Amino acid sequence: MGYRVVVVGATGNVGREMLNILDERQFPIDEIAVLASRRSLGTEVSFGDKTLKTQDLDTFDFTGWDMALFAVGSDATKVYAPKSAAAGCVVIDNSSLYRYDPDVPLIVPEVNADAVHGYSKKNIIANPNCSTAQMVVALKPLHDRAKIKRVVVSTYQSVSGAGKEGIDELWDQTKSIYNPTDDKPPKKFTKQIAFNVIPHIDVFMEDGSTKEEWKMVAETKKIVDTSIKVTATCVRVPVFVGHSEAINIEFEDFLDEDEARDILREAPGVMVIDKREDGGYVSPAECVGDYATFISRIRQDSTIDNGINLWCVSDNLRKGAALNAVQIAETLGREVLKKG
Ligand SMILES: NC(=O)C1=CN([C@@H]2O[C@H](COP(=O)(O)OP(=O)(O)OC[C@H]3O[C@@H](n4cnc5c(N)ncnc54)[C@H](OP(=O)(O)O)[C@@H]3O)[C@@H](O)[C@H]2O)C=CC1
Ligand SMILES: N[C@@H](CC(=O)OP(=O)(O)O)C(=O)O
């Protein structure tokens, strides 16, 4: 016996990846429904070798469905996630709406799968921000060995993090650069993204940081350990898919770079590619379509007593969103619902 699963936002980048990953991992499904807005009613999406027609989220009845994987952004989630939860269909939500709610577990299965049991307070589980998800997969095994005090992270985030409109804007603007009669001014982003980088993701906070940066701080604390201090600078770069991060970690105890490399090689969800030669590291274009969080450039930071630097790359639509959501669904099934 399998599950009755709903994918909400099935026409979007994350929703389509959820369908791919549910199929790839042979998630035990008895029945699947795919939902989007009314304007997409009847739009066809692929699920393995099947083609499914999208239904209207607004009129869908969640009664009798086991779990709903949401990827529609906070505004629509606010309206429809409570309806799903109230109907007994457990919500696994990709938006930031519930992440900081103490009654909603925020889960990266390689790090805190046990938190799944907290789902029942609201029938909702939150999926973290894409930049946080890949970073904590790398931090957790190192924290277990040498206790992390402080993390300094700079991100290089692809345009797919900003949805379909982000991808279209990079594509159209890149072409328009070579055709001055076809000007494509910024719409989704605040400045030109083609051949440029923009140190601004999500809204500005009062202290001058952005909400994306704040999310990395708050979510790392909730998922890994409240004692870890994080300071982040989040930057949008002209890459279609794949987020990269330069991470500096200060530990309480000394951790040798070779031991750090060995620990990461054994860590779940991590793939170490770290040769000190041309091309002996992973770039975002190489991680697309993969499940792993790739770690390269592991080296001692000799400017502090107990410091390590590393480079962390992952497919933001997969580990940063759809894969992590499916892993949560697998954990929920295995630990709680026990149908599959
Ligand atoms: N965990 C993470 O780090 C990440 C989370 N996300 C989350 O996932 C969400 C979706 O991202 P992404 O797939 O990239 O975005 P897209 O823009 O590619 O897709 C948005 C999806 O949401 C649907 N949608 C939007 N508004 C409504 C509505 N009112 N009612 C029904 N459906 C609606 C769209 O349907 P239609 O086609 O009909 O408009 C579409 O299916 C993001 O907003 C974010 O919250 C995204 C990336 C990473
Ligand atoms: N903000 C991320 C993607 C995203 O949707 O994040 P969140 O779910 O935290 O809003 C990016 O632009 O790369």
TrEMBL record:
Substrate binds at Q157, R236. The active site is at C130, H243. GO terms for molecular function: aspartate-semialdehyde dehydrogenase activity; NAD binding; NADP binding; protein dimerization activity. NADP(+) binds at T11, G12, N13, V14, R39, S40, S160, G161, P180, N316. Phosphate binds at R99. Transmembrane segments: none annotated. Its EC number is 1.2.1.11. The keyword Oxidoreductase applies. It holds the Pfam family Semialdhyde_dhC. Pathway: Amino-acid biosynthesis; L-lysine biosynthesis via DAP pathway; (S)-tetrahydrodipicolinate from L-aspartate: step 2/4; Amino-acid biosynthesis; L-methionine biosynthesis via de novo pathway; L-homoserine from L-aspartate: step 2/3; Amino-acid biosynthesis; L-threonine biosynthesis; L-threonine from L-aspartate: step 2/5. Belongs to the aspartate-semialdehyde dehydrogenase family. Homodimer. HAMAP family: ASADH. This is Aspartate-semialdehyde dehydrogenase. It comes from Shimia gijangensis. The gene is asd.
